[in-house]
Structure formats: C-alpha cells, structure tokens
Design a protein that fits this description.
Elements (H helix, E strand, L loop, with lengths): L23 E2 L5 H9 L15 H15 L6 H8 L3 H4 L6 H12 L14 H18 L6 E2 L7 H14 L6 H32 L3 H6 L2 H9 L4 H5 L11 H22 L4
Parallel strand pairs: 1-2
Helix pairs in contact: 1-5, 2-3, 2-5, 6-8, 6-12, 8-12
C-alpha cells in the first residue's frame, strides 16, 4: 500500500503538479471509461477466456516502469513486457495509456490507513503531515511532476484523501472554499520544493558534478566579487547562510501555517452573525 498521508499529493483535485509544457495530461483518455475502471462500475464480461491479470497488477507494473524510467519510458508495450505478457492482452483491461495514467495517479495517492500519519488530530498537525507526506510522495514517484493535473479524474483514492484531510481541518472555522484553498496553497508550495529537488538531482546526473562540487567551482570568482565591496550585504552573511543544514522546506511550511493560524484566530474572534 502506498504510504502517503492524506492522498492529496498534488493529484487529489488541487491540480498544481505539472506545467503547461508537460508531456502528459491527466484526463486525456476516455473519461467515462476511466471512471468505470476507477470505481469498478463497468459491466464484466460473462463469456470468454478467464482473465490472467488484474487491473491492479497492470497499474502497479506501470508505476514501477514510471518510477524507474520516467513517463518517457512508459508505454503499453513496456508495461506488457514488465508483466511478461503480450501488449494486446492489456487492452482487455484498459483502453490505452491515457486511461492507464489516470489509474496510476489515483493509485499512488491512496491514503494511509494509519491515523497517526495525519498528526495528532489538530488541523495544523494535519496540514503539516499532509505537506511532508506529499513531498515524500513526489520523491518516490518523481514522474508525478511531469503530469499536468489541472483537470484530474477523481477516483476513490483522491476522494478518500480529501475526505480525511477536510475532516481534520474543518475545525479551522474557515469557509469551504477557503479550506480547499488552504490545501491548494500548501500543495503548491510542496510542488515547488519537490520540483527544485528533482531539478538538482537531474543536474547532478547530467553533469556528473555533485551540488557541493558545482558550488566549489565558483568559490574563487565569488570570493573575488565579494571582496570588491560591491556587494556589502552579501559579504556580511554568515558562513553557514547557504549551508545544507538549514531546513528551508520546514521553515517555509511553518510560515504558511503561521499565516493560517492568524486567519483562524481572526475568524474565531469575529462576532457571530
């Protein structure tokens, strides 16, 4: 079972992952057929040979391929090879790659069944756990960042995840649109952090230089520039300013939550209408 927390993961209706130039788009297949597969509402054939695979096996195989080879390596033929079967046999279960991608998106955001994964029951802990769980989700499945999810197909995992997180944050006292906006706000922040980490990993892979080696190569030029007096504020920064020990993600996340805390307090103090 996927070990994400809330199951929003940028794919649970917030639609922040991916970009206009993404190679893949959620909802690009036959929407009605995808919904039938997600919700298991299609009619089952009463005749013909007994199925040798399950839809779950196919989706899991597709996720394995995408995790190791990226979306550029994902195809019906490649998934069939992963399962040791013929390509045409997959079409008995899923119409094509577009529908398969939507099944993959819903599968990876299946929420954890452990209540502790969403904090101690308070709304702030729930949102923090959601954020960290979503970041971990992108690290496990970096191909998620290649998908334009502005129009997600909502399956059971997406709705289960949203139901859980909304239940925990409803006591914030915000309006329903504001509750969804709070989730979207945090999800967008997480997507940005995840994309930056992915780009750093990709840069290291392409150049062969570690992050430390890359910056070390610039030290002589930077020391000379800072000694020129042209950048006095930069020159005055402490030596650990750009070090790896500071938790930039955690710092930014706490400031977002602080801002929401202020809003929650304001709503609590407003006179009842």
């Amino acid at each position: 079972m996927e070990s994400g927390t809330s199951g929003t993961g940028g794919t649970g209706g917030t639609g922040s992952a991916g970009s206009a130039g993404s190679a893949e788009t959620s909802g690009s297949g036959d929407i009605a057929r995808t919904l039938e597969l997600l919700w298991d509402t299609g009619r089952r054939p009463s005749r013909g040979p007994k199925p040798t695979l399950t839809l779950e096996q196919i989706v899991e195989a597709a996720i394995r391929v995408a995790d190791t080879e990226g979306l550029e390596g994902l195809s019906m033929r490649r998934v069939a090879a992963e399962l040791g079967t013929g390509t045409m046999s997959l079409y008995r279960y899923v119409p094509g790659k577009g529908e398969l991608l939507d099944l993959m998106l819903d599968r990876v955001q299946r929420p954890s069944e452990n209540p502790a994964d969403l904090g101690d029951g308070g709304w702030r802990a729930a949102l923090e756990a959601m954020a960290r769980g979503t970041l971990a989700l992108y690290r496990r499945h970096p191909w998620l960042l290649q998908v334009n999810q502005s129009r997600p197909i909502l399956g059971p995992s997406a709705l289960d995840g949203m139901e859980k997180i909304l239940t925990l944050i409803r006591p914030m006292g915000l309006t329903d649109p504001e509750l969804v906006s709070a989730i979207t706000l945090i999800d967008g922040y997480v997507v940005g952090a995840a994309r930056t980490q992915l780009y750093q990993q990709e840069a290291e892979r392409r150049t062969g230089l570690t992050d430390a080696e890359f910056w070390q190569a610039q030290v002589p030029a930077l020391e000379k520039a800072l000694a020129s007096g042209r950048y006095p504020v930069m020159a005055s920064l402490s030596v650990d300013t750009f070090g790896p020990d500071f938790d930039h993600f955690g710092f930014g996340l706490q400031r977002i939550l602080d801002g929401l805390e202020v809003l929650v307090a304001q709503r609590r103090d407003e006179p009842a209408s």
